[in-house]
Design a protein that fits this description.
By secondary structure, this protein is mainly beta. It has one domain. The chain is 13% helix and 34% strand. It has 2 helices and 9 strands; from the N terminus they run αβββββββββα. The strands form 2 sheets. The protein has a 5-stranded mixed sheet with strand order 1-7-8-9-2, with no helix packed on it. A 4-stranded antiparallel sheet has the order 3-4-5-6, with no helix packed on it. The chain starts with a helix and ends with a helix.
Length: 191
């Protein structure tokens, strides 16, 4: 008889054990314009041995217009990595070294990893891939940033610490999607 009472309790608590997936976060870049890009989708595996990723992005006419980079962040003067930062630089405007921000003049110092600062709008730190529990944007959050007339979608697929109980990353795998179609409407049509 006791077993019968236990079954509904177990079935009701099962969803509590499911992994939490945060809602996607959308931001629109301060950099507006008509540029559309050649769509691309790929994964980047980052490690301390191969910590930097760079790729040129072409517009719909095949001309290189943006430079995507993913670079490591960590303690000053150290080789340990605690997070990675994604930037998108406009090759036609050298002063625009990160158009993933919602404002051209952020109220924080981008070099100081503002990903943990609770006073900063989460939309302005979507480029910070920080596994810390105190990060403004959880690592598993899908990040959608509209730049001009295209979208950059970032999703961390996996990460590993070394050793497991340390803050230092051994690897991170990031899915990157460059598209001219709003991924939020594409997701709605698949439901």
């Amino acid at each position: 008889m006791k077993f019968r009472l236990l079954i509904p309790l177990v079935l009701c608590s099962a969803p509590l054990f499911a992994q939490y997936t945060p809602a996607p976060i959308f931001a629109e870049s301060f950099h507006q314009g008509p540029t559309r890009i050649i769509e691309d989708q790929f994964e980047v595996k980052l490690t301390p041995q191969d910590p930097i990723f760079r790729k040129r992005i072409k517009d719909s006419h095949g001309v290189e217009c943006y430079a995507l980079s993913i670079t490591p962040l960590g303690p000053e003067h150290g080789s340990d990595i605690t997070s990675w930062q994604v930037k998108l630089a406009d090759l036609n405007h050298r002063s625009l070294d990160d158009v993933l921000l919602t404002t051209a003049t952020p109220t924080f110092d981008p070099g100081n990893n503002p990903g943990n600062d609770p006073g900063i709008d989460p939309r302005d730190v979507l480029g910070y891939l920080n596994p810390s529990n105190s990060a403004r944007v959880l690592l598993s959050t899908k990040r959608i940033i509209k730049v001009e007339s295209f979208y950059l979608v970032l999703l961390v697929k996996a990460h590993r610490f070394n050793p497991p109980d340390s803050p230092y990353l051994e690897s991170m795998t990031v899915s990157v999607d460059l598209t001219n179609t709003d991924p939020r409407t594409a997701e709605d049509t698949r439901k």
